[in-house]
Amino acid sequence: MRASWTWMPRAVPVSDAELQPGAEPISPEAKELATSTRRVVLVALLVLAILSVGLGIVWQRTGLWNPSWGAPERVAVCPSDALRPANPQETKVNVYNATDRIGQATATAEALKERGFRVGSVTNAQLPDDVREGQGVILAGPDSLDRALALQRQMPKVAIKLQPERTDGAVDLVLGDSFRGLIRPDRVSMAPGVPRCEEALFGG
């Protein structure tokens, strides 16, 4: 009895040289070089990522923070009508020292705490030279003007700089060379009033 069978096609391995007539086969050394190159690139990218994270942490902890002073994408203006200052207990203030006086931000932050303000970050910052020579600046978003006004009442000579895109609800106080502290508590008014802003302080 004759056995029946069915022929099945089989895949036959084909080399690169056979697929591409005239092409030279890739040597093992070239393949190893390509593999090594890919490994070097991946390791370099990993090292750069680790360095970026590390520098970010060091940057924050050492106080080498520089706010963005560039011109805003959209315009925000101070209100022309009277505004009621927020309660200090509802106002979070980040205090930054742009002067060469060590401890200026810490001392100011402690004074604000004694008056009921909630203090966030306390570290160093940078200001343009022409601004640093003054009292400093209060930075706030459009929705935090009442909090900025509450802070401004503690230091009436420090102007407010609006940051149109800001939405975190906090207020930044960046101290300049001429800053000499808060005014006396008995001179602080919490009555409604118009904030004093400087829209063009940094070219915005």
From TrEMBL:
Keywords carried by this UniProt record: Membrane, Transmembrane, Transmembrane helix
Source taxon at top rank: Bacteria
Residues that span the membrane, as ranges: 40-59
Residue span(s) of domain LytR/CpsA/Psr regulator C-terminal: 91-179
Stored InterPro entries: LytR/CpsA/Psr_C
Pfam families: LytR_C (PF13399)
Record protein name field: LytR family transcriptional regulator
Organism: Galactobacter valiniphilus
